[in-house]
Amino acid sequence: MIDLESAYGEELRELAEELCRFDTTGGNERLAQEYFRDRLREYGFETYTWTGDAEALAAHRSFPSAAELVDLSIEERPSVAGVLEFGDPDRGRTLVLNGHMDVVPVTPEHWSGAPFEPRWTEKGDRLTARGAADMKSQLAACLFAARCVAEEAGEAAGGDDGSEDGTGGNAEKGVSDLDGRIVVESVAGEEQGGVGAAAAAMENPYPFERDAAIVAEPTDLRVVTAIEGCLMGQVSIEGRSAHAARRWAGKSVLPLFERVRQAFCDLETERSERVSHPLYERFETPWPIVIGRVEAGSWASNVPGTLTADVRVGVAPGESVDDVEAECRARLAGIANDDEAGEGDAGTDVAGATVGADAGERDGGDGRAIGFERFGIQFDSAEIDAEEPIVGSLREAMAAADLEDTHPTGETYGADARFYTDAGIPSVVFGPGRIEQAHFPDESIRWPDVLLAGEVLAETARRYLSAGT
Known about the structure:
The protein folds into 2 domains: 4-227 and 381-467, Zn peptidases (Aminopeptidase, 3-Layer(aba) Sandwich); 229-374, Alpha-Beta Plaits (2-Layer Sandwich). It is of the alpha/beta class. Strand 4 (119-120) and strand 5 (126-128) form a beta hairpin. It is elongated and about 80 Å long. It contains 10 helices and 17 strands. The longest helix is centred in the first third of the chain and has 21 residues, at 132-152. It has a 6-stranded mixed sheet with strand order 1-2-6-3-7-16, with helices on both faces.
């Protein structure tokens, strides 16, 4: 196994730093993607660039209509990839090492330093910046893992030959016992539902097929073969506003919302007990439900007559988003039925409630309506068999690196692996860093873990390609 620190340590640090300097929030991936593509070319990769198509994505069950995708500026957000070929590439396997370039927004005042100015601890063993853990360090590691394989195989992976996209960028090959390809892929829009990966899975941007993928999200160096899905829904409650001086003349939405909130808490508890999966036994709450945003009322001196609440509901591997949505609707309907039967909050300005397709569907009287609608992009769950060859190669590489826990597990977050798996490309999730650091202020990653993950990725690729010849 190649020592990544000795082979490419300084270059790897520099690339991770430079990627973290780019503010890639809110659809601003282009400059960073062009920089990454230039580095791929410089190191002898054949490069490819693609963007998503709103009409094509709208045909996928996870995405809303093309009109609703307009705000994501899909056509202006490029994804890029570099390819290294070995021996007779069509005779061997093709492995994708995938990461995403976009990051979540920041609140600068919550950070101890500038979020897009990467900084190291005094010992140089931890990198802090937005994107350090999720997941620009991993992108850099994927690139240099591929270079390690090329070096070990006698391939030249360095030097700019001036190739354009898709026209050939591999340097002259040496003697190799490998046949196949490694694709290092940097996609756009993962944090907004997986725009770049979905496009790559649905409309192959390469002139060859892909056999497997590793999505290098932060897994704390664990093998993740199952990822959770989520239903994204918005609850809307309609009451009746009134002047605060005549509070009793209005119908406040707040008491009913409290019952909605409690209903989701109860549903979360029930689902944790009822829905089981062997890879999620370590989680006390394997299918979390979070109300992440609430907006109610219009003025401090008014009874709040409207409310919207954005809800994320975990979907277990093997479940469908549709089935979980039906559970949520049934729970909300139960609240409405209780109110109509007079079992509501007596004396707190509560009238009967109904559940409809939107908050304007009333019961014909003064009662409030509860609406529930999906919004944005939905996340399907995904799982692959632990006996898949890519999982075996990864576990063997981890054991060779003296990583003790090589058992497959599941994670409560979603990842782009779902699109590739759905397209028939078995995808495992593995990378350095902890999910507890992702999306947090002062996001950081242990650098020794990045180096170790890069070595494991390189060894996994070598074993996977060797076994496919």
